[in-house]
Amino acid sequence: MSGVEMRELESFLVLAQELHFGRAGERLYVSQSRVSQLLRSLESRIGAPLVERTSRRVRLTPLGEKFLADLRPAYDALRATVDEARAVARGRGGELRIGFQGSVDDSLSRAIARFGDRYPDCAVDIVEIPLSDPFGPLRRQEVDCAVVLLPVAEDDLVLGPVFSRQPQTLAVSVRHPFAARDSLSAEELAGCRLIGIDGGAPEYWRRAQAPGLTPGGLPVPAGPSVNTLQEGLSLAAADRGAMLLCRSTADHQGRRGSLTFVPVQGLPDSELGLVRHRLRPTAQAEAFAAAVGEATGTAARRPARLAAGQPRTGAARLSP
């Protein structure tokens, strides 16, 4: 992509439609020779012809056909982002729909306030999404961005910023044998049934929230599965299983009479991340990502992809 100019891509897209250098030049308000020059420059950067030229016809090469199919949605998304940014700059604002799991925590509240101060004409809608479907609402365009528990290893999603790193606790009934403990080791999770997550979330994600093995490789019994945080807390209170939560969630919930929260040593910390759709970016979502980074002092990043079938130990829950 190094050095590629937008004008070269635009010229290729128009030529692919017209299949005629003269008509492409008319649409672009440049000469026919300029279209040819821009195309040659693009082909030079790519390293192979995209168009076959004869005295009688112009047609795309097989590589040109593939390049067109890959380029068109990305170019359209980029144009839409620019158009929306112009709308925000002109005060039309639009709407930002933010999905979240559980409850909005302090860092997210600061980011929303910062975004609202910066773009007062943009309406902000906060939408709760279930634990069991962290990525679905974004893919169905029900939200523009979503705050979800890590890990995130989806090719069609952009992750960042990552924030709200918190130690793990175990929510158990006051009747559970662990309830009187000051802390637990991660290996002791082999002695309780962990409440898992229902739904269509990827296996690697569900395993991160309720690992099937301790860090040392001991099997962890599987408890019932739930769709929401409140369902999990209710089952834990009924002594149907135990649920891993980050510390700030435990602090927010308090003792709750029928529940207690025991720190777990030796598990990876919980983290949250903001995700947007790679092919359907919006100016509002990108501006909100910047506000989250500023409010939390973090920068956008994408973790290494998980290998197929690679187990993930550790768990996370959203800070309310």
TrEMBL record:
InterPro entries associated with the record: LysR_HTH_N (IPR000847), LysR_subst-bd (IPR005119), WH-like_DNA-bd_sf (IPR036388), WH_DNA-bd_sf (IPR036390)
Family designation: Belongs to the LysR transcriptional regulatory family.
Keywords carried by this UniProt record: DNA-binding, Transcription, Transcription regulation
Organism whose genome encodes this protein: Streptomyces mauvecolor
SUPFAM superfamilies in alphabetical order: Periplasmic binding protein-like II (SSF53850), Winged helix' DNA-binding domain (SSF46785)
PROSITE patterns: HTH_LYSR (PS50931)
Domain of life according to the entry: Bacteria
Chain residue ranges for the region called Disordered: 299-320
Any Pfam family the entry gives: LysR_substrate
Keyword DNA-binding: yes
HTH lysR-type domain sequence ranges: 4-61
Name used for this protein in its record: LysR family transcriptional regulator
